[in-house]
Records
---
Amino acid sequence: MTSGEREKAAAYLDETRDRLLRAARNLSPMQLQYKPAPERWSAAECIEHITLVENLVLGNINNTLKGSVGAPATDMGDDALLERVTNRSVRTTAPERITPTGRVPHDQLLGEFASTRRRTSEFVASTNAPLRQYAFPHPRFGQLDCYQWVLLVAGHGERHRQQVEELMAEAGFPRAASAR
């Protein structure tokens, strides 16, 4: 990872973290639970999912870095990847292992997310591994190098932050904040 790549990844991780925290920090438990339809996720489920994915990806990156250095051919460029990840017009279904279950109490959701993002940011700030030389496949986007996976988790958080804001704009979204 070049110094420019490190700066880009760190800035994007911080920016997307801050946007999500701003969007969700004052939501009441009722607002966090709101679902406009049974098949749609609540804000709480979005935040739990973001955290599950980021923990999984960081673990996968660390495991991949234990293997042999290769010269992976990625299936798309960084900008194209981020455009696809953040594009909310394409809906997908999460695999069961990263589907939210409600296991995290509402008052701990943002703390868990922030803690996970801090670990990812610390990894980006401290790693000397050649992230571009290691890769593993994404089920939708194909082969991604480990640097692209870092960008993906930030973009993934951004995608679901947009989803939270879409929920908040729904006519049925509870407007009166109840006591936490």
---
Amino acid sequence: MERFVVHPSVVFRELDGETVLLNLDSGVYFGLDAVGTRVWALLLEHGAAEPVCEQMEREYDVTREQLEHDVQRLMTELQQKGLIVAADS
């Protein structure tokens, strides 16, 4: 299971149920809605997609297939934007 951590140059803040992420090195700014914020919080806690999906499956009325697709898509985008990195890098 691949594990991820927040890039060291990223700061983030939750405001009214949404989260704003900023990479201070690259200037990349990214906003998360309420569901994205929940993924972010669980990713910070667990560091991997599988436990994030397991927890969200208990909280949301969504198929596991759709959940895994959506979580993976968000994590890929966060990684491409340099907001999260593989834990071993």
---
Amino acid sequence: MLESIRLGKRAKNQLVSLKRKTGISNWNILCRWAFVLSIAEPSRPRRVTESLDEGVEMTWRTFGGEYTEIYEALLTKRCIDDGVPLSPTDMSQQFRFHVYRGIGYLAAGKRISNIGDLATLSTSNNLHATASI
């Protein structure tokens, strides 16, 4: 599966802002929220072509923690649903696209001002409304 996760400078800046707003101090926790929010969207994420210099890097194990296998299964299922080949390269790329989209949803919203706002997003009524926040 994936060995490491790299995100560019824009994603890093958005994560820094989210850390400040929510009080969540770990990149991996915010990236988990971002990934899950993105895969809840029925559309495929757009391709992101950004330099990965000066960004964020973490291992797949750090990203997933004790739930690594669950996140891997979610990504595999989503790739199958979207017709994306299950090669490590394609899956890694799709994972990054989903995390970027999810971070964008979280960072763009004016409603995210604390950790409680993230919890509110986890309700089923709000998952598909993230694009408007």
